[in-house]
Amino acid sequence: MTHDDLIEQILTPVTHDLGGFKVHRTLPAKARTMVGPFLFFDQMGPAILDAGTGIDVRPHPHINLATVTYLFGGAIDHRDSLGTKARIEPGAVNLMTAGRGIVHSERSPGDERAKGPELSGIQTWIALPEAVEETDPAFQHVTRDELPVVEDGCAKARVIMGSLWGRRAPTDTYADTIYADIVLAPGGSIPIDTDADERALYLCDGEASVEGVALDPTHLTVLRPGIAATLRSERGGRVMLCGGEAMTPRHVWWNFVSSRRDRINEAKRAWKAGEFPVVPGDSEEFIPIPEVPKTVSYP
What is the pTM of this model? Predict the structure, then answer.
């Protein structure tokens, strides 16, 4: 099988240095805005921050999407306008559904700050189907032990969302979605399911290839639909598999996502006017709306 038979597209990351750690962002990109319902894909770190410091993402809003936070190392305290307080640690998943509107903050826990917080993981945004974009906001925390693990010799895969390898994660989904954390020891391999409309592989660290085509670190490699393939590693590596049903493109502006541009304009107005709900216990400061958005609108 040739490279062109297998690979539809390779997305190069935009890397941001946030002072102490880097974020590699592969979605959205001008070349492609979505893979299945995934419209935002960030790798945070890996990094060890200075003792006494940490991340402090102040309260900020979202609409018409769901955020998925999955860590490899460290911990993050999540608070939101529903009154949720949850600590996410490696192997668990936080799914926050914004729906018609939610506000949340993300901060390093106090005990992590004291020793110098570790930060390593993936944060993604998932588009909601148009029929449920304005659903009630919600939060779901699924523990490490609740997520199914498929293990065979030198391959270990944790199913984060959807159904893969005959196992289904309990994480809520709004559209057909696949998401998994695959760790391959030297000599390990695992087949990639063909059922999803769109699929992509992201090499977090180490080395891996698919049907002999080497994966580039921190790049999102989009596979052609319906092509059977096997992921392999000679020296060991960690790969995220994501995708699902194809969806119509979304408008993205700052932290706002919607199928309708006028809905984003309304969210801008509402955030400026202070009409979003506050985060209990974390409402004294917030991120103001930027004059120039950090995320460009597509299309």
Answer: 0.95
